[in-house]
Amino acid sequence: MEARCPRCSNVFTTDRSGIQFCPHCGQQIDVPAPPTAAWGGAPGDFGAGRFTGEPPPGGTPGSLPGGKDLTPWERRRELGVVKGFWETWKQGFVAPQTFFRSLRPDVPWTEALYWAWIVHAINVVLSLPLIGLGMSTMGLPRELPRSANIPPEQMEALMKAFTAAFGLGPVLGSLILFPLVAIIGAAIVHLVAMVIGAGKNGWGATMRAFCYGSGPYVFSFIPCVNVLAWIYVQVQRIFGVMGTQETDGFKASVSVLLPYVLACCCGALAAFAAGGLIAALAGAATGSRSF
Length: 291
Description:
This protein is mainly alpha-helical. The protein has nine helices and four strands, in the order E-E-E-E-H-H-H-H-H-H-H-H-H. Helix 6 crosses helix 9 (249-289). It is elongated and about 95 Å long.
């Protein structure tokens, strides 16, 4: 490769980057490494280089075969942050199959994580009025205020404050821990995908599908609607795994849904075991009283 000395401005040929001496002026210089592709490197080389959101030299968006393209969020330098975020959310929500089929698997997964983090932040902000203003309070036995010699209005105000504090803590904490939770969730999905042969493009591709599939979570602050939002998130993630890992619908569905099935089974077994233990202890206590 060719390098230019910043001191004497002469161009010389070298086979490496880093600290070396200019052959013309003899001064020590630091030759930078050759630039990598702005899209994150070759397909399958996740996270390589530094993503800029701009086309590679001489290229245009949509440069991968098969219609693979950057998302509007990844083109936010061109479109603007707000428009890039909104267009990405709208495309995934309205036409998930088309959107995720065009999702590039080789862009650094951090781009998708930033987008999903904003989605979660919006959900947190929208949920604050329901929690912080005490619109939902914890129920108390009717006789408690009288037995504690506390006026009912004071007890009501106390419970509103307690409910707000109890609800705001986990919600705000989830905003901080969201990246870790997303990484763990995507890792579990990708582990299942690898086991069944649906993870050929690597963990980064699964992470992009996992994060870009979280768009409907902006509605999860609404009671009852949150269940529908969760269901649609799983639908989007299935389309996401199909698109980024280039696999069929069955394998993608197993990758996304099997962790929830296993979690439910483990929970049911734990509840059954706990119930059996409680019944055994109650039977032992009853037997001891009969003597």
